[in-house]
Amino acid sequence: MQKISHGQWTSPFRVGLTRDFLNPDGSLGFGEIGLDLLDRADGVEWEFLAKNGQELVAEQVHDYDALIVLGPRVTAQT
Q1: pLDDT tens digit sequence for 35-61
Q2: Do 78 and 57 meet the contact criterion of CB atoms below 8 Å apart?
Q3: What is the pTM of this model?
Q4: Contacts of residue 43, Cβ cutoff 8 Å, sequence gap at least 6
Q5: How crowded is residue 56: how many other Cβ atoms within 10 Å of its Cβ?
Q6: DSSP alpha helices (H): ranges in 1-78?
Q7: Would you tell me how many other CB atoms lie within 10 Å of the CB of residue 72?
Q8: Which residues contact 3 (CB under 8 A, 6 or more apart)?
Q9: Rounded distance between C-alpha atoms, residue 24 and residue 18, angstroms
Protein backbone atom coordinates (compact mmCIF):
# COMPACT_ATOMS: atom_id res chain seq x y z
CA MET A 1 0.00 0.00 0.00
CA GLN A 2 1.38 3.40 -0.87
CA LYS A 3 0.71 6.71 0.81
CA ILE A 4 0.34 9.88 -1.24
CA SER A 5 1.49 13.31 -0.10
CA HIS A 6 -1.87 14.39 1.33
CA GLY A 7 -2.08 11.46 3.73
CA GLN A 8 -4.62 9.41 1.77
CA TRP A 9 -4.02 5.85 0.66
CA THR A 10 -4.06 5.07 -3.04
CA SER A 11 -6.03 1.88 -2.42
CA PRO A 12 -8.65 0.87 0.15
CA PHE A 13 -7.64 -0.28 3.62
CA ARG A 14 -8.82 -3.90 3.71
CA VAL A 15 -9.99 -5.55 6.93
CA GLY A 16 -10.61 -9.29 7.23
CA LEU A 17 -12.75 -10.82 9.98
CA THR A 18 -12.55 -14.44 11.03
CA ARG A 19 -15.63 -16.51 10.24
CA ASP A 20 -16.13 -17.60 13.84
CA PHE A 21 -18.01 -14.32 14.34
CA LEU A 22 -20.79 -15.91 12.24
CA ASN A 23 -23.51 -18.41 13.04
CA PRO A 24 -23.94 -21.38 10.68
CA ASP A 25 -26.71 -19.45 8.88
CA GLY A 26 -24.35 -16.52 8.18
CA SER A 27 -25.81 -14.12 10.74
CA LEU A 28 -23.60 -12.44 13.32
CA GLY A 29 -23.24 -14.63 16.37
CA PHE A 30 -22.35 -11.80 18.74
CA GLY A 31 -24.88 -9.16 17.84
CA GLU A 32 -23.63 -5.68 17.06
CA ILE A 33 -19.83 -5.77 16.87
CA GLY A 34 -19.28 -2.32 15.36
CA LEU A 35 -19.22 -3.20 11.67
CA ASP A 36 -21.22 -0.04 11.02
CA LEU A 37 -18.13 1.93 12.03
CA LEU A 38 -16.14 0.18 9.33
CA ASP A 39 -18.96 0.84 6.85
CA ARG A 40 -18.83 4.57 7.60
CA ALA A 41 -15.03 4.86 7.43
CA ASP A 42 -13.83 6.34 4.15
CA GLY A 43 -11.43 4.12 2.26
CA VAL A 44 -12.13 1.01 4.36
CA GLU A 45 -13.42 -2.27 2.96
CA TRP A 46 -14.14 -5.31 5.11
CA GLU A 47 -15.19 -8.90 4.62
CA PHE A 48 -15.22 -12.23 6.39
CA LEU A 49 -12.37 -14.57 5.54
CA ALA A 50 -13.31 -17.30 3.07
CA LYS A 51 -12.41 -20.20 5.37
CA ASN A 52 -12.69 -20.93 9.06
CA GLY A 53 -9.92 -22.77 10.86
CA GLN A 54 -8.05 -23.06 14.12
CA GLU A 55 -4.99 -21.22 12.79
CA LEU A 56 -4.73 -18.44 10.23
CA VAL A 57 -2.33 -19.10 7.38
CA ALA A 58 -0.48 -16.52 5.32
CA GLU A 59 -2.30 -17.41 2.09
CA GLN A 60 -5.69 -16.50 3.55
CA VAL A 61 -4.67 -13.17 5.08
CA HIS A 62 -1.98 -11.73 2.79
CA ASP A 63 -4.40 -9.36 1.01
CA TYR A 64 -5.57 -7.66 4.21
CA ASP A 65 -4.13 -4.62 5.97
CA ALA A 66 -5.77 -5.55 9.29
CA LEU A 67 -7.51 -8.53 10.86
CA ILE A 68 -10.23 -8.81 13.46
CA VAL A 69 -9.73 -12.23 15.02
CA LEU A 70 -11.94 -14.03 17.48
CA GLY A 71 -10.59 -17.54 18.00
CA PRO A 72 -8.05 -18.73 15.41
CA ARG A 73 -4.39 -18.65 16.34
CA VAL A 74 -2.12 -16.08 14.74
CA THR A 75 1.42 -17.43 14.53
CA ALA A 76 4.76 -16.45 13.03
CA GLN A 77 3.74 -18.38 9.90
CA THR A 78 0.62 -16.26 9.55
Answers
A1: 999 999 999 999 999 998 999 999 999
A2: yes
A3: 0.81
A4: 8, 9, 12, 13
A5: 20
A6: 35-40, 58-61
A7: 21
A8: 9, 10
A9: 13
